[in-house]
Amino acid sequence: MLADPFELHEPASIAEAVALAKRYCGDVRFLAGGTDVLPGLFRGLHTVRHLIYLGRIPELHVFDPIRGVFGAQTSMASLERDPVVRQRFVAVSLAAHAAAGPALRTSATLGGNLLVDTRCTFYDQSRFWREANEGCLKADGTECRVVSQGSRCYAVYSGDMAPPLLALGATVDIEGLEGRDSKPLEDLYSPGGDGRLSHALPEGALLVAVRLRDPNLWSSYSKLRARGAPDFPEGSIAIGIHETDGRLDHFRIAVGGIDTRPLVMNEITRPWLGKPMSDEVVEATVESVGRRLHPVANTALLTDYRKHVVTRFLRTDLARYLALRSKELTSSTPAGRVG
Amino acid sequence: MNGIVGSRVPLVDGPLKASGSALYTADLTLPGMLHGAIVRSPEAHARIVSMELWRAMEEPGVSAVITGDSYPRSFGVLPITRDETMLAVGKVRFRGEGVAAVAATSPEAAQRAARQIKVIYERLPEYEDPEASAATVTEKIHAHSPGMTNLQKEVRQEFGPVEEAFRTAAHVVTVRGKFPGVTHAALEPHAVLAHYTPDDRLTVWSSTQVPHYLHRALSEVLDIPEHRVRVIKPEVGGGFGGKGDPMPHEIVAAALSRETGRPVRIVLSREEVFYLNHGRHPTRHTLKLAADAEGHLMGFDLDALIDGGAASSFGTVTTYYNGVLATGPYRIPAFRYHGRRGYTNRPASGAMRAHGSVNTRYSMEVAIDMLAEELRMDPMALRMRNFLSPHTTTINEFRITSNSVVRCLEASRARSSWDTKYRKLPVGRGIGVACGFFISGSNSPIHFTPPFPQSTVHLKIDVDGGVTIHSGASDIGQGSKTIVSQIVAEVLGIPLARVRVAAVDTDSAPVDLGSYSSRVTFMMGNAARCAAEDMLRQWQKAAEEITGRPSAEFRAHDGRLEAPGNISISYLEAVHQAMRHHGALQSSGAYESPSLGGKFKGARAGTSPAYSFAAYVAEVEVDVDLGRIHVKKVWAAFDCGRPLNPMLVEGQIEGSIHMGLGQLLGEEMRYRGTRLMNPSLLEYRTLSPVEMPEVECLLVGEEDPEGPFGAKEAGEGPLPPVLPAVANAVYDAVGLRFTELPLTPDRVWRALRQKERGGGLQKPPAPKVDAR
């Protein structure tokens, strides 16, 4: 498989990158580490004639774990290995470590992972395969191959970085045609729940950086994948918790690898704010989150299993928090696992 | 003799490969070279109504467009079942089959042109299930199937009093096994470079395990005399059986080169390699074992149905192997086998490492575990009671020579602390055992005319003192170059660095049948030893001329020829003396396999001059919450006779365990109907390094009387035992029997939930009779 010819642009500034994106509007993609966009080009999933490489823009490489600022070009390997990230933003480090394999993580970037294309058995195939299958809703066709007569696309959000960052309450800096804007990470994802869109960034807008404010949260990330490496998540869950004087003032949960976008469970966790974390909270949360999970059969593993494992991770990770809390060790103890 | 044989010599081509200097087919270029691309069918079974080629012809850079009609003659690795063509002729039989091919000045131009070829198909009924293929069909996939069926091969064999055995047995166990297809997943995708020159000669460089069979197929299909066809095998990045047939793209490249008069290279994409397949057959079988009250096996009955996909490949052999290779390492007084292979509209199945024996071995070893439980015996004790002895004959007339299976079982039992673990580990942890048996080369060649040895080796030495080995044997990464170098250096008593192996080139190398059926060390090794002994005799004669001492007194050692009484000359002195009148020295050695096997139909299938034996123990931990099987350690006791290079044997065992666990725990050619759903390495999922257990290799074999320096095979036999050893360990851990693969965590989890609902997880009952 070979990609159609394209022109590679290598801007040195954000302004230049956004201007290029505007000039080639409709026929352009940003290229970060290349681990998602390039396979997509080889498979004919993207047919643009212009790629804007972001690696030469210094501002996108900002890496300041003390202040919690991470440029979009930060490599997954840096997030995985940096001792400050590992100590202050545990779930971020765990998630970076759980993504792909070591070689890919040196190229893959934070921004690329947040905006990774949604995945589906019927979509992540070569042009030949898709044409032989007469396409699908997300590419080259008019019917969903997963849910018969489905009117929306069920392709799955398959990044590792969104759940932990959402659980930690991250914000993102975005450079658009109207200038710089800062918004909650949630806003990066399409609220409509259609897998055809992997994110809600307007065309030509550029993700510049991710910001994390509070380094004192307890956090965890657990991921289910078919093998120990290097597969995409079949379900993942991140938790961010903070209590002041024994009462929750931060409690967020985000799930990846199940739905078309990362699911933030604020409506489940918000009512517990102001109350202490307890077995009762754990039980109620696990049950409510379980009800929100509706995977469909478009990845490798069985759907009931994926749902089981994600809720099991949630229960285990919350129980671990409770156990550590009783020993007042919650700030720096890593939690999570890859199953 | 200088101790090179038997020592842990690193691969002689290791530095080249590790440094990236080794040249593989895709690295090769020639001036004026064109690039080929193959147009593939989106239909699984369809008549080709018409093809529009002119648009492709008009694309810039395109030199030729061909279809199956250019060279419609069929070929196949077995001369009795030639049913593949270079490109489809008249109809397509599986999705991904080539229908046309393009040669152009760049890969991009070739691909662009290929996309311009429009084919109109008329769909035919699709067959995805070999059961349906064995019944009456409305549309035959190949015209030569019997009646209105899509059967490719049917085998019936019966030896001894089978009915009586099952009627009078105290115990009968039955396993209904179901196995999806798996594929080789070699690191290097197939690639070929062909150059047809104006002197009516064709040279083909290809990533192949079988240069000789490719040589024949090119000659036959293109109608070029064999002496004008030259096949060269560059480095090969893994084969595992997947490069063991002459393949369509190899013929296509040659045809395009002949059409254009320019060299043409084709490098398959990973997806195309999946469609080429020729991998392990999807299998369904029912296996029954009968035993008396003391645990002596009385009968073995097997009914197997295998999915051949759209071509025969090695399938006739596979159909036999599914049955006959399960008759060892046990003494079986009665054996019945019914095997069928059906064509379906899926990529062809063929030979894959431990060809034809893996799935039956799995169910056989699980059945023995079940039998042991019924008898309340330790499964090691039950096996010990039923082993074939050395130097015996099996029920189906396989000649057994060396056989160290008892030592294998004893070694793995002792090293694994079996007696303290079996049925004694806590719930969730378990230990299991399984045995193995495999051929050291197929005793029968595929072609009988003209008759010639299985392997021939030529040696040449000139004034520089370096010995050049010419052999048609294919090093595909397994290390045959190193083994042949060791053997020659050992006999000639010279350092390994004085020996070099010439590239496999059919113009200069004598025929070796190829790297399949684990034949190379045994057969080429014997040929090499003979060639080296022939060379040594020439040196000894020269030593006699120099010293006046009888030639028979000279021994080769440390680069010298030494005779009693402190007589010693360097080997080079002898060589230069011998060369004095006729220049460079040459020698030749050959291996002819013995006459083996019975007189019944199919009697030759599975005969071999020697067999490897194995006994593996695996220890596992089952995460009952997540359904994940963690293989903690494998004790792999293996009888490869005398290991000529223990490090390479260990590499083969570790690689086999990795591959076997891949099939057991995750790999699967996943289909929806005839559509392959996972033609990529990301979705096919071979075992990742994270899942690889610790392996302790126990090389306990005794010297084989006919193997070179006592050696037998170690390339395929190490694979099959690991699957049932782990499955039996899982049973020991959680009391669950799995007879369908693969054991992915979601499927294991489902089975565990069912088991819990049915009364909870517990250890199976302990034996009353211990292992002794």
Task: List the keywords.
heterodimer; A: 339 residues; alpha+beta; Enolase-like, domain 1; five-stranded antiparallel β-sheet; four-stranded antiparallel β-sheet; 30% helix; 19% strand; globular; B: alpha+beta; Aldehyde Oxidoreductase, domain 3; Aldehyde Oxidoreductase, domain 4; five-stranded mixed β-sheet
Task: Give a summary of the structure in a few sentences.
The complex is a heterodimer of chains A (339) and B (772). Chain A has helices at residues 14-23, 37-42, 76-81, 83-88, 90-98, 102-107, 110-114, 127-132, 162-167, 266-269, 279-292, 303-326, and strands spanning 7-9, 28-31, 50-53, 63-64, 69-71, 171-176, 179-184, 206-211, 218-224, 235-244, 247-256, 263-264.
What does this structure look like?
The complex is a heterodimer of chains A (about 350) and B (about 775). Chain A is of the alpha+beta class. Chain A folds into 2 domains: about 60-210, 2-Layer Sandwich (Uridine Diphospho-n-acetylenolpyruvylglucosamine Reductase, domain 3); about 220-325, 2-Layer Sandwich (Enolase-like, domain 1), CATH 3.30.390. In chain A, about 30% of the residues lie in helices and about 20% in strands. Chain A has helices at about 15-25, 35-40, 75-80, 85-90, 90-100, 100-105, 110-115, 125-130, 160-165, 265-270, 280-290, 305-325, and strands at about 5-10, 30, 50-55, 65, 70, 170-175, 180-185, 205-210, 220-225, 235-245, 245-255, 265. Chain B is of the alpha+beta class. Chain B has 3 domains: about 20-125 and about 185-240 and about 245-275, Aldehyde Oxidoreductase, domain 3; about 285-445 and about 600-755, Aldehyde oxidase/xanthine dehydrogenase, molybdopterin binding domain (Aldehyde Oxidoreductase, domain 4, 2-Layer Sandwich), CATH 3.30.365.10; about 445-590, Aldehyde Oxidoreductase, domain 4. Chain B contains 20 helices and 31 strands. Chain B has an 8-stranded mixed sheet with strand order 3-5-1-12-9-10-11-22, with helices on both faces. In chain B, strands 7-15-14-13-8 form a 5-stranded mixed sheet, with helices on both faces. In chain B, strands 18-27-28-31 form a 4-stranded mixed sheet, with helices on both faces. In chain B, a hairpin with a 4-residue loop joins strand 27 and strand 28. In chain B, helix 6 crosses helix 7, helix 10 crosses helix 11 and helix 15 (about 520-545) packs across helix 16. Classes of the chains: A alpha+beta (about 350), B alpha+beta (about 775). Chains A and B meet through helix 8 and helix 12 of A and helix 3 and helix 20 of B.
